[in-house]
Amino acid sequence: MQSKLNFEKPLIELDTQLQQLKAFAGANPEIDISKGLTALEENAKAQTRKIFKKLTRWDKVQLSRHEQRPQSFAYIDALFDDPVELHGDKCYGDDRALVGGLAWFEEQPIVYLAQQKGRDLKERQEMSFGYTRPEGYRKAKRLMKLAEKFDRPIISLVDTPGAHFDRGSEERGQSVAIAENLAEMARLPVPILVVVIGEGGSGGALAIAAGDRVLMMEYAIYCVAPPEACSGIVWKDNGEHAPEAAEGYKPIAEDLIQLSIIDGIIREPLGGAHRNPVQATRNVKKAIKKHLADLITIDRDTLVQQRYDRYRRLGVYGERMDAV
Amino acid sequence: MAAERAIAQIDQTIICRGCQAEIPLETFIQALKVCSTCDAHAALGARERLDLLVDRETFVENDTDLYSINPLNFPNYESKLERDTKKTKLPYELLTGEGEIGGHQVNLAIGDVGFIGGTMGSVAGEKLTRTIERATQNRLPLITVSVSGGMRMQEGTLALMQMQKTAAACVRHSEAGLFYISIVTDPTYGGATASFVSLGHVVIAEPYARIGFAGPRAVAGIHEQLPDNFQKSEFLLEHGMIDCIVHRHQMQSFLVSLLDWVN
User: Fold this and answer.
1) Which pLDDT score, from 0 to 100, does residue B6 have?
2) How do residues B98-152 score in pLDDT, each as one tens digit?
3) Is B25 in the same domain as B120?
4) Is B168 in contact with A182 (Cβ distance < 8 A)?
5) Binary contact (B155, A311; C-beta < 8 A)
6) According to the model, what pLDDT value does residue B61 have?
7) Closest chain B residue to A164 measured between Cα atoms?
8) Residue ranges of A 288-307 with Cβ closer than 8 A to chain B
9) What is the ipTM of this complex?
10) Contacts of residue B195 in chain A, CB cutoff 8 Å?
11) Which CATH number belongs to the domain containing residue B218 in this structure?
């Protein structure tokens, strides 16, 4: 059973036709259908391009949350050599929605941080559907300090609907945990490279995303709150205006690069990362390689100053220049 | 005792919704908008708060020329800005400047809940950052009085970025060896709580103030059993997330004693 979004349905139908045609060809080797097959494949590609050109911001929100979208598991596998996961915040628990550890990227020892939502129901429950708890952020902070101690760059993969909002998270200081990570990243003298691979949900994402370079996958989002929550706050409803919220607050990669909130967009395979995860991870690897090579050449004081300036500039407002 | 903050006003009489007490307006204002019966602390505007904390005629306001625009073309944002500018008589959500508290020179930032729910957008982020940077430059203590509905939805991810911008400025202020007192008032939620608010060296809350990360709407969605004082000052104190709770009537003298201690 393949889950699909509404705008994906014609593509899934074309896929099915292709599969049937291929099966037919396999069963009837004496009939040459290669021409028909090529035509159908070309048609599928053209259709996909056409549909994806017209995607709304709300469609892209759906893509960023697609059930089959590759999660950080796929990227950790494809990007890093010999990853060693380190568990726990050494204080209360081990949050499965935010993992991290030591690994090698190409020849470079790095610290990785990665949010994950889970691929099946069991994992999703274990990972609270990607909602990160204070223990996750405190583990991240511990790993950031480890990166500092051994002068290793941090690669952070962001994918969360937001920080957890249950009773326990409030009791154990969700706000303090996030605030302390922001403070940590403001002073950390090692490169921090961030890739938003799916959902970059509010402070829950920012708590591991205030890096030197922030890259976004083409169909990822990065927002102040989920569109449903924005709808609730602005329209005082139960999320019915989420599509308008998504149009209104501009959470997609193309919006955010114009506002200088992100530094690069990583293109996804035709039809989205879930249609070709191997290609998606390859594109991410290439982008990380390029930016990491840049970052490690910058001396540490300059790096921290540039990071300060990067966030210092963000904001759009009016300023009256009244004549004195 | 969990008092409601909401009050109603009929002519010259205030009705406290927490305890139904009827209080003459003049008495209520003299008591700094604290209910004389149940001790509920009603909301103060930024100017009222300023008068309460800062030595008379020492305050110099900064950055009055910044105002919010609609950078993302979010529907109906301009009309809300216009409405709340009229209502609060402030063109922004945060009053900033320099003044003296018990003779101590400090930099101050005071929020106003009347302005788009006290949410934080680019203007509040910029004004707060400038205030913190000035405090760092002039080697002065920083005092923030927060009241916040979180980050401003209408400014999207730009608003979110103000968390990092202000947090980073706090770090520099702190690394310069300077003192930051964060006062939290009712209500303070979301990105404000999860950034500069929680980075104070001393975090003080007013009694019964609602303080949290997740908004009440989100929390209600989980259907968990919650204690009566959930996300109130008393709950945060119990769980070790704030340093102390100080009554509004004692706030000014409490600040003076802290400032005396560091200077």
Assistant:
1) 62
2) 999 999 999 999 998 888 888 999 999 999 999 999 999 999 999 999 999 999 9
3) no
4) yes
5) no
6) 96
7) B214
8) 307
9) 0.95
10) 178-179, 182, 203
11) 3.90.226.10
Which whole number is the average pLDDT over A112-131?
97
Number of domains in chain B: 2
Q: Mark whether B99 and B7 lie in a shared domain.
A: no
By residue range, what is the domain housing residue B155? 43-262
Nearest chain A Cα distance for residue B214, angstroms = 5
Residues in chain B closer than 8 A to A249 (CB atoms)? 72, 74, 153-157
The structural domains of chain A, with segments of one domain joined by +, span 6-54, 62-323
Same domain as B167, residue B105? yes
Angle ∠(A188,A189,A194) on CA atoms, nearest 5: 65
CATH homologous superfamily of A62-323: 2-enoyl-CoA Hydratase; Chain A, domain 1 (3.90.226.10)
3-state per-residue secondary structure call for chain A: CCCCCHHHHHHHHHHHHHHHHHHHHHHCCCCCCHHHHHHHHHHHHHHHHHHHHCCCHHHHHHHHCCCCCCCHHHHHHHHEEEEEECCCCCCCCCCCCEEEEEEEECCEEEEEEEECCCCCHHHHHHCHHHCECHHHHHHHHHHHHHHHHCCCCEEEEEEECCECCCHHHHHCCHHHHHHHHHHHHHHCCCCEEEEEEEEEEHHHHHCCCCCCEEEEECCCEEECCCHHHHHHHHHCCCCCCHHHHHHHHCCEHHHHHHCCCCCEEECCCCCCHHHCHHHHHHHHHHHHHHHHHHHCCCCHHHHHHHHHHHHHCCCCCEECCCCC
The minimum CA-CA distance between A122 and chain B, rounded to whole Å, is: 19
B209/A contact by beta carbon, under 8 A: no
Question: Is B70 at the interface with chain A, CB within 8 A?
Answer: no
Per-residue pLDDT tens over the stretch A188-222: 999 999 999 999 999 999 999 999 999 999 999 99
| Closest by Cβ to A315, choosing from B158, B172, B219 | B158
The verdict on B49 and B136 lying in the same domain is yes
Instruction: Examine the domain organization and report whether B18 and B118 are in the same domain.
Output: no
- Answer whether residue A31 shows pLDDT above 90: no
Average of pLDDT values for A273-301?
Answer: 97
- Which of A175, A251, A311 lies nearest to residue B213, judging by beta carbons? A175
Average pLDDT value over all residues in chain A: 95
Helix A174-187 vs helix B156-175: crossing angle, to nearest 10 = 70
Q: Is pLDDT above 60 for B4?
A: no
Residue B18 shares a structural domain with residue B77: no
In this structure, the answer to whether residues B18 and B116 fall within a common structural domain is no
pLDDT digits (tens, 9 = 90+) for B50-103: 999 999 999 999 999 999 999 999 999 999 999 998 887 877 789 999 999 999
**Is B227 found in the same domain as B130?**
yes
Cβ count near A247 (within 10 Å): 18
Which residue of chain B is at minimal alpha-carbon distance from A186? B168
